[in-house]
């Protein structure tokens, strides 16, 4: 049983078919449901088309360096399901998974399914993670998560506070500001990356240098690495870099992390310059890794000369508070990350924070239960479309041994 009909669930379904393992894929909505229902209008993949690969599928279109729109991602995933003849049952939400003799019982509105093994492929972004401070926002200010947001026209007139400056936050801040609204961007920990480096897409470097293939058991602080925000990237035909310097130059106001809201006043941390310096330092170290690989691998002749980027410029005196009752801000967009949802999982495999306890996708204390598609599941690339194949093959091999035993 595979729970989830997105790219990760379909990837492991394809590999299970290659191993001649009977299975079914249960999908709560339609194939690629999250892409159909839970994405904003202008979203594009962060990865170029040439990286859009799955087991038995490689991109062979005419635009390998472009970035897929939401509609194109839906077409990719649904087309892959059809071409693979994946055994998908759509519009079949799972309401319970519980242990049974020699396996699991999976309950759906249409009945119960018994299986020896379960693969959780329901995704890492089932719900928006909104901090508790949200409850203190004045009622007159409209609050939206990234599941609610579709385009700037659906926002009320007036200023917008975007909370969170990872890939989603910087993209939405830029789009909303371009619509003519004043935007304040609240910045916490973030990962800065240029779109291109030495004449190649930065994700080409991640792939070619082996950084993306680094395994979970090779990382010192795995728990922290899994919590890192997504890099500040945007996929555009112009292959532009969208960092905080660009946003500030366009007129977006940068403030620190939203630490609290008291009596209607938002309070921001004063460590903005330190956050910038830390993100710049991490980027420099990654670029050093790329340069070292290019020297040692002989790839230096194929790419441009090493380059470095201007440090992130901190505002001279960023404001430390904002009166949310004054009318300056009419809406808040929470771009503060996502969380998986396991309310239907009636097996004691979650930690105190509601996170799945697993070792490289093998769920702890639940023989025959696996997960795929979570951050840094087995490799740094695990949550990306192209990262599903290697993880699926590893987990399927483990599952085959489990069934044989």
Please give a quick description of this structure:
By secondary structure, the protein is of the alpha/beta class. Helix content is 26%, strand content 19%. The strands form eight sheets. It has a five-stranded parallel β-sheet with strand order 3-2-1-7-24, with helices on one face.
Descriptive report:
The protein has 2 domains: 2-126 and 340-404, 3-Layer(bba) Sandwich (FAD/NAD(P)-binding domain), CATH 3.50.50.60; 129-334, no CATH class. Helices cover 26% and strands 19% of the residues. It has 9 helices and 24 strands. The strands form 8 sheets. A 5-stranded parallel sheet has the order 3-2-1-7-24, with helices on one face. Strand 10 (159-163), helix 4 and strand 11 form a beta-alpha-beta unit. Helix 1 (7-18) packs across helix 9 (388-404). The mean pLDDT is 95.
Q: Topology of this structure?
A:
Layout: E1 2-3, H1 7-18, E2 25-26, H2 33-37, H3 70-84, E3 88-89, E4 96-100, E5 103-108, E6 111-115, E7 118-120, E8 127-128, E9 142-145, E10 159-163, H4 167-178, E11 183-186, E12 191-192, E13 196-197, E14 200-201, H5 202-208, H6 222-227, E15 231-232, H7 244-250, E16 253-255, E17 258-262, E18 265-268, H8 272-297, E19 321-323, E20 329-334, E21 338-339, E22 358-359, E23 362-363, E24 369-371, H9 388-404
Parallel strand pairs: 1-2, 1-7, 2-3, 7-24, 9-20, 10-11, 10-20, 11-16, 12-15
Antiparallel strand pairs: 4-5, 5-6, 8-21, 13-14, 17-18, 18-19, 22-23
